[in-house]
Design a protein that fits this description.
By secondary structure, this protein is an alpha/beta fold. It contains 19 helices and 18 strands. Strands 10-15-14-11-12-13 form a 6-stranded mixed beta sheet. It has a 3-stranded antiparallel beta sheet with strand order 5-17-18. The chain has a 3-stranded mixed beta sheet with strand order 8-16-9.
Length: 603
Amino acid sequence: MCNINKAMTGSTIINQRQHVGLQKLLALAATAHSSLGPSKKLKFIQDDVSGESILVGSCLRILENLEPTCAIGQLVYETVEAHHKVYGTGSGCLLFLAGAWGRAALVCLQRGVSLPHIVAALTEGMDVCVDVCKKSSISFEDLCMSPSSQPPQKRITKAPSNSHMTPKGQTARKMKLSRHFCETDPDSVSVLEPHLPDTAHLAEGLRHGCDNAMDLVIQASCMQLKNTPKDTHFAFDVSKVLTCVLPGFSEDHAHVSPGCVVLLNADQSLVAHQLQDTLLNAALICGDLSYAYRHLGFNRPTGLQCVADQPRLSSVSKEEEWMEKVLALLLHLKVDLVLVSGLVSEVIIQRCCKNRILTVGKVRASIIKEMAKATGAVPVTYATQLSKHCIGTGVKVGTWREIQRDQRTSVNIYTGGNTQLVTAVITSFVHGKLQVLEDRFWACAYRLNHALKDKAVLPGSGVTEMLCVCHLQKQANVEQKTNSFRGVVLHLMADGFIDYLSTVMANSSGISQVQARTAVNQQLQDFNGDRSVSAELSRLVLDSRPSAGRSVKPAQVYDNLSVKQEAWRRALDLVLLVLQTDAEVITGVDESSHGAQADLMFL
């Protein structure tokens, strides 16, 4: 929609003669500052051509509505998108720190620090930060022992170093030749803790200002817990959670329902009313329900022509023949409901509706799998593969609300078994706000999901970042005695965390950036190396405007261990990749000259 170059040049003047990539990275990171912290500010992005606008509330939504016309813009977007697909939260932290550490690298280059020194120092700083997370993480055992007070800090992780030593003794960053960069080491978090904390208490510390969204998440987790066998550990399964957005209702109507709630058009709604409260036979299809669909990996033979002995006299097309065959098969098997993971054409939907068969498309694969488990149905790739052994039983449909504006109806598809399928119904009078509310729900859901997976959390309210600042500054002072370059880089890396804390604090409390930075620096002076940081840093209230009725103390705010570590890693990987690209563009690579590659980092 909006041109990304215009967005960048509007906030930063780009010097075309040196390190353009780093400058563009800084400009892109600046566009998402308002999305940090528990009090996120919403933005409108307007299309210069059509004049249409969209309301966004996260850095991912900002980037995906900008047109990445440059390589750096595309790289930044794909990095944030890849992180969001895996973790569902933490993208704002990633983009901000990429900008902050990119600025640190740019300042070092302007001061004459060589590329190898910058890379080595940034990598060393990341190792320091990972070690801080390892030592300050809070295990679930501690949360269970002391749920009402700040738990003691306990080391539970291995967090192996993500680096290796070069022959010259310098530490070099290991990166994958992939758009997705480094993935989390499965051994980086402990899975040995048998105890689980109270889910409501844990979710309370992971709200991060999204109170209504986290309330829905708690309801969804409670519904799943009811259907979890008693002899197994409960893990909030986001793959079995859906969202259904309904415009035209107040936000107070938002709720969680067991089963799968979907929006249907007028014809589908009529069939749903006819099938309501009766046990249905269900067919499950993994793929598109269309004549032209072929499964992934299918290669149609090329250069082949079908030759018939007699001319084709019928005017019926092959697609029409296929449709008649599928419809006859569904009627023969007495199918009432067809759930399809892919697309379904409107023609097929209408033909099925005329025969009192409800067909629903775009159903997530995980939902198809759960429905198969609950009903005994066997999913097939093509509708022509259906047989009586593939049909499931025991499904019901029930209508919830009709939306008068577009004549659509929300319908709940559910089973009577112990299914963990739940749907969060998101409502708002403001149509443009629905996407923001849905994003907030998923961010809360993923925060709870990752906390239960990690079996550990980090101290929130900026405590972990403050610890990193203190350790980076301490290491920088040591390095400056022997190597001034590394000390400079580590100090600038620590400044990136200070900028992050100041921005979150300014967004949350409404004070200026200067005032926020002064408050953070004062906390650093008062910290004075004391390891019992919880009591001292609880005064750094990053979420200083809690909702009415909330009494969560800053010391009880938690962050995700794996999400934060991976956001930091990807931010640094992005900076190093852009840094090397700039260096190659500016200096060039002459393989024939001796030592030409000495100052370049190869990924």
